[in-house]
Amino acid sequence: MTARADEQLLTFLLAGEEYAVSILAVREIVACGTITRVPAMPPFVRGAMNLRGRAIPVIDLALKFNGPETAITRWTCLMIAHVPIRGELTVLGILVEQVSSLIETAAAAIEPPPALGTRIHPAYLRGLLRRDDKLVVVLDIERVLSSEELLQVAPPPGSAADASARPPERPQESPQERKS
Amino acid sequence: MEIDRDAIVDVFLLEAAEKLVAAEDAAMALESAPEDGELVQALFRAVHTIKGDADSLGFSELAGLAHTVEDLLDDVRRGRCAVGLALISLLLESIDALRAAVNCVGETGSDAGCEPRELLLRIASAHAQAAAVGNPPARASIPAAAQAGGAAAAAAQLRRGGTLRVAVEKLDAALELSGEIAVALARVKTLLAATQQVELLDAHYDVERLHRELQEQVISLRMTPIGPMLRGFTRTVYEVALAHDKQARLLVEGADVTVDANVIEQLRGAMTHLIRNALDHGIERPAQRRALGKDPRGRIVARARREAGAVVVELEDDGAGLQRDRIAARARELGLLGEAEPASDAELFALVWRPGFSTAEQLTGLSGRGVGMDAVKRVIESLRGSIALASRAGAGTTVTIRLPVCMALLDGFTVGVDDEVFVLPREAIRTCMALPPAAGDRGPGLLDGPGGVLPLFRLRELFAWEPGARREENLVVLHCDGAHLALAVDHLFGELRTVISPVSPLFRAARAVTGYTVLGSGRIALVLDVPGLFREAHQQQSTRPALLKRWSS
User: Fold this and answer.
1) d(CA B213, CA B207)
2) What would you measure as the largest C-alpha separation in chain A, in angstroms?
3) Are B372 and B355 a contacting pair, CB within 8 Å?
4) How many C-beta atoms surround the C-beta of residue B486 within 10 A?
5) Which of B355, B512, B543 sits opposite A39 (nearest CB)?
6) Are A138 and A21 in contact (CB under 8 A)?
7) d(CA B63, CA B389)
8) Chain B environment of A163 (Cβ under 8 Å)
């Protein structure tokens, strides 16, 4: 029985596991270049990268899903997505260890996610896909990259939260250090 | 010769807008000079010309509206209609309606559906009342010559090479391209320098020079005179004063001073708030002013001028000035001032910028977008500008706004922390130097600098970054609003004049970052916001209470 293949998914490796997103969400895939650190960002925003002259935010989904930081190697890529943030269409780069393949499948083949057991919160998942005896986690990329999710840690400027002081992580200065 | 209709319509729109501004000024001037026949004539002429031009271009609804207003003005100039607040109100509304119709043509190319029914009825009834006073006015028929004259005059204007309407996005795109060319040229220069070939380097130098000229031209395209924006407040001043039972007029100086187009809208919001403040708190009621020996009509001056590298916009009123006791009382309410603590004028007035300070606006419901003076200050700072208050008790208040001449270009100075490069605005830098080895001797966080003891902050710490492999070796002394701080960084690179771009919406919450630029190496360098850095330092300083007193002295 073959169901009509009406979905195209891009699979990739993230923290050693295989994930998939709808290809429609991905504008292009580029090699990961130098990442410029941007201060006062949540950890999963690794910084900015130069994409044809534009500084675009680099998002590390591994960190966002409470995993270890994605290591940058020569296979590391950025999946470029355009998402609306506060009404503005914003270009974002999603860090992936390695892009695997493009697969076609039927939307019906994606099984709903179990309520428990997945490392990632079920709200971020479209479901699970069986492929060659493996389970591929299909992400709901729009939910993952929605304004609320990305901006929840960074309060808007001028708000009360913005005015509250964050204790800085200052190193303890030892007398030896000062002398050098 | 074929005449391009679009171009003629463009000229018509520009001229109609100008005439309506002149008509509006004349109408408001009538309030204090109701007998001045020349003002009415000026109004009549303006509306009459718009009617003729609109008719000759086929905008019959607009022409019809203008015709109705013209009838009313005819009544006025024949003395059949009394000039009072009610009539002036009606005239101002009519001018608004004409303006809306002209804008409608500008946006959609047609005046269909522009006739404001309700307003027309009111004008018609005023006209009927006037007719009851005397003989029915003889309708001046539009001579055919005037009609033809309209179109021909427009064509003549075009041949003389008037103005052109260009979408701002096109200018922004041109500027962005220019910036990218600068980056590419810098890359070529690095590659050429390695070849050591003088001819190649000379040729490159020529290209660089030409490109700089081109960039300046592109930047100057974005510059627009500030006059129209400032004059737009004449109406606001008139109406807000009226609503407060006060009298005030607006004077505009330096209308020809040009400002970056992107700045105008944001400046407009800030100035609206300041003007409303001036009318709410500053200008006194007419009776009170007379008692003080002042002209019962308050005077608000909006003044623009150029200074080296900056555009200065001042808003000066001749009202009561900042009330020390009211400000001190409010400051105590908010816990910003102790009971016994005396404060100098400068320190006291600086409190006005704190969030939540002004409450009077909220009570009178006057302020529109944004709340309070702190919002105004942030807007000005987001434009890389500064704002200051000065006041003479009983004589008035002056707000001085300084803005960079061009928003897109920055005269910067680059510094480095670890592998990252940051750009600081050159005008915020007092001096830079190597970090003296005995820097820590005055106690943690203090530096014996030129001119006294300075608070010392490491840029790493302000960003809450872990200590790097390198130890800071250099520092930059920054100034902001009269305060100074020494910022320790790893490297000092040098001056850099560059195009800066706004950051992605996601990065806007990054405190102290106001934009970015791309270096010749392709690397992104963040442009730092000096007031933001000082705010960060203030917050972190709260963990070092011993320093608090010393810094503010």
Assistant:
1) 10
2) 76
3) yes
4) 25
5) B512
6) yes
7) 47
8) 355
Look at A18-32, A45-59, A140-154, B344-358 and tell me which has the smallest mean pLDDT.
Answer: A140-154
B287-341 tens-digit pLDDT: 999 999 988 889 999 999 988 778 999 999 999 888 888 788 878 877 777 776 6
Q: Are A8 and A22 in contact (CB under 8 A)?
A: yes
ipTM: 0.76
> Smallest Cα–Cα separation from B371: which of B362, B363, B380, B384?
B362
Tell me the pairing of strands A134-139 and A17-22. parallel
Interface of B with A (CB under 8 A): 176, 179-180, 183, 355, 374-375, 378, 420, 440, 444, 461-467, 471, 501, 503-513, 516, 518, 522-526, 539-540, 542-543
pLDDT digits (tens, 9 = 90+) for B55-100: 888 888 888 889 989 988 888 888 888 888 788 888 888 898 888 8
DSSP code, position B24: H
Tell whether the model's pLDDT for residue A177 goes beyond 70.
no
> Which whole-number Å values give the CA distances from B504 to B11, B183, B436, in the listed order?
38, 20, 38
Q: Which 3 state secondary structure label does DSSP give B51?
A: helix
Beta strands in A15-107 (DSSP E): 17-22, 28-31, 35-36, 45-51, 54-60, 77-85, 88-96, 98-105
Contact B270, B401 (CB under 8 A): yes
Of A29, A10, A33, nearest to A20 by C-alpha is A10
Q: Is B534 helix (H, G, I), strand (E, B) or coil?
A: helix
pTM of structure? 0.65
Phi/psi at A26 (5° precision)? -100, 120
| pLDDT band, very low/low/confident/very high, at B134 (cuts 50, 70, 90) | low
The per-residue pLDDT for A4 is 67
What does the alpha-carbon distance between residue A95 and residue A133 come to, in Å, rounded to a whole number?
A: 26
Of A49, A53, A90, nearest to B505 by CB-CB distance is A90
* C-alpha torsion sign, points A153, A156, A158, A160: negative
Region class of A26: left (phi > 0), else alpha (psi between -120 and 50), else beta: beta
